[in-house]
Amino acid sequence: MALILYNTLTRRKEPFVPLDSNSVRLYVCGPTVYDFAHIGNARPYVIFDVLNRLLRNMYPKVTYARNITDIDDKIIKAAKENGEEINELTKRTSHYFWEDMKALGNLPPDVEPHATAHVNEMISMISCLLEKGNAYVSDGHVLFSVKSFPYYGQLSRCNHEEMIAGARVDVAPYKKDPEDFVLWKPSETGIPGWESPWGVGRPGWHIECSAMSLKYLGETFDIHGGGQDLIFPHHENEMAQTQACFGPHTFARVWLHNGMLTVNGEKMSKSLGNFITMHELLKKMKGEIVRFVLLSSHYRQPLDWNDQVVQQSRQSLDRLYNAFRGRDLNVEEPVFEPIKAALEDDLNTPLAISVLHDIASRVHKAIHENEKNKWASILKASGIWLGLLQEDAENWFKGKTGIEESAILSLIEARNKARAHKDFAKADQVRQELLKAGVLLEDTPQGTIWRHN
Ligand code: AMP
Ligand code: ZN
After folding, report:
1. pLDDT for 135
2. Three-state DSSP class for 24?
3. Residues 187, 119: contact at Cβ < 8 Å?
4. Does residue 54's CB lie within 6 angstroms of at least one atom of ligand 1?
5. pLDDT at 203 > cutoff 80
6. Which of 29, 69, 100, 229 to mutate to test the pocket of ligand 1 (most atoms within 8 A of CB)?
7. Residue 333: Cβ within 10 Å count
8. pTM
9. 1.10.20.10, 3.30.930.10, 3.40.50.620, 1.10.760.10: CATH of 19-262
10. Whether the CB of 32 sits within 6 Å of ligand 1
11. Whose CA is nearest to atom 15 of ligand 1?
């Protein structure tokens, strides 16, 4: 089967045909580093990590670029509020971001350009837009003239006047038209600024992604990703800028957008104040549990974060880890084909997860040890396609209880002795004691095993 992706640009599922099958190029909008990332922010990075892994398994070379927005008015405001230097804030927040990405099991992108290191590239692109008549200078600002670009609106396909009222678009006196957006703005003293033909200033957010994707992926590349909230205005504007410079068929060919993560049905966002940061969450649970939740529904659907999905994901992971715990694993086993097929069908991660469960059942049902080991190895090899199940199974169960493994094992032994002497009251007492510590015992034909409750 071939890879099929839902393209926001055409609103259809389409077979993916790279521009150059020897070099596939993917761009994902990265974080604006002014604060801790929340679980909603983590969703696109986990989804596009699965896409990156899949592409790497299909093509000899993949370039995955994900930027860091380290200049933005939100950053300037936050630094002022914290009484912190801007570069201290962006450095600190980027480090937290990388820690979160690692804990979530995301592979690092191939290039991670920082906006502040690419201001010259942004200035060149803005100059190009001015030369072509798609931009104008007004009151120290440079603005993109939306009316000058006939294809504007092709991605979001919306009534822009209505959207402008609701989106991150400022109405300002220096704009000829309210839908025009900022490419460059002046910086007063005390605010970061770069020399430019229009005075000392700083770039607008949208031009950052156009300039950085151009530098690392070229005028035209394969896939661009981000959350659905970025379709308008951010992605519409990125596309308008690049296409106004290089022609209508340039920039990303396939656009992928993940659905929003909600809490009790409301979008998780910093402005609504209903967010849970990854940083806090990771103190309470393993990153792999968060990853599992994020992959448990299809990426284009909304996903509600609640205790129940967390609990289910924890239990699923316990079951899967249990299936290869203590098994003799052969690292050469290939991925199970149905996993690949599920991912190739527009990244159907919930289906892929149900296939993982199916493999675990095969481990349990197999009669011969060899067969059990084979399915256990296939489970581990398949998990890697989703960035799951890569921890050592013993470690997985160990880190999760408030009691040392050696203590658990000696209590299990005491319970077994009690059972052998038909002292069932004592055996039950040990079981309850372990349960209180969060350890659940399971008696199997191979003996007693334990897992986190
Ligand atoms: P930001 O740093 O706000 O630009 O967001 C970084 C990424 O997270 C973007 O791709 C956003 O679309 C995405 N994002 C923000 N909030 C959510 C949410 N609640 N659910 C899913 N994705 C989100
Ligand atoms: Zn972007």
Report:
1. 98
2. strand
3. no
4. no
5. yes
6. 229
7. 17
8. 0.89
9. 3.40.50.620
10. yes
11. 41
